Amino acid sequence: MKLVKLLANLGYGSRKEVQRLIRSGAVTDADGNVLGENDVPPHDRILFRGEPLDPPAPLVIMLNKPDGYTCSAEDPGSTIYDLLPPRFAQRNPGLNPIGRLDKDTTGLLLMTDDGKLLHKIIHPKSNCLKIYHASLDRPLEGHEGELFASGTLVLNSETRPLLPAQFQALGEKEALVTLHEGRYHQVRRMFAAAGNHVLGLKRISIGGLKLPDDLEEGDWRALEPEELASVFC
User: Fold this and answer.
1) Global pTM?
2) Which CATH number fits the domain that encloses residue 36?
3) Could you read off the pLDDT tens digit of each residue along the chain, which spans 233 residues?
4) Distance CA 100, CA 3 (A)
5) Helix, strand, or coil here: 87?
6) Domain range spanning residue 35?
7) What positions carry a catalytic annotation?
8) With 0-12 CB in 10 A as exposed, 13-18 as middle and 19+ as buried, what is 203?
9) Residue 140: CATH number of its domain
């Protein structure tokens, strides 16, 4: 791929803007040599204004989503795209969340520009379990685990029972819930059906991939191949 198209696809500007940037000397190789429009060095040796290029497609990133951010660029207010470099909005193909987190739910969110991978992860046959940590308004009553695992729980306004979900009490007002599916506000509505109210909700893992302790809220990074593979474990 020619340098102009590569940089434009990564969101560094339109093709005309990228051409001007290249001609101005903004793009060099790792040895400091100024690159021309027809130069095609290895991706990891290209620098833009002295910084390594963003990873190429296909790209998968993990984001530690904070409270108050929605997962659609079209929603009003703050969105997850505000947490990424502005040029990411211009990437082609674009980044999309792999399943969404509600505005008031925090934690592990994956994003990718690989449509096939996105659908593979969210497809029920992949069985990518999702674990949530819930902080509750009232003490647990002891019947929640049986109710959630029953396979007969029907949420308000729905007719199809939920798939059985795993439950683990962590304290008087804390619990882990493992889901095999992802319905609208599912964990919150499950606890509402059990007579409780969720004050805080955080997704801590998808499949075998856990939210790293060193990834601060609002931060993101590209997934390593072994991390992506762990999603399907």
Assistant:
1) 0.92
2) 3.10.290.10
3) 899 999 999 999 999 999 999 999 999 999 999 999 988 889 999 999 999 999 999 999 999 999 999 998 888 899 999 999 999 999 999 999 999 999 999 999 999 999 999 999 998 888 899 999 999 999 999 999 999 999 999 999 999 999 999 999 999 999 999 999 999 999 999 999 999 999 999 999 999 999 999 999 999 999 999 999 999 98
4) 34
5) helix
6) 3-52
7) 102
8) buried
9) 3.30.70.1560
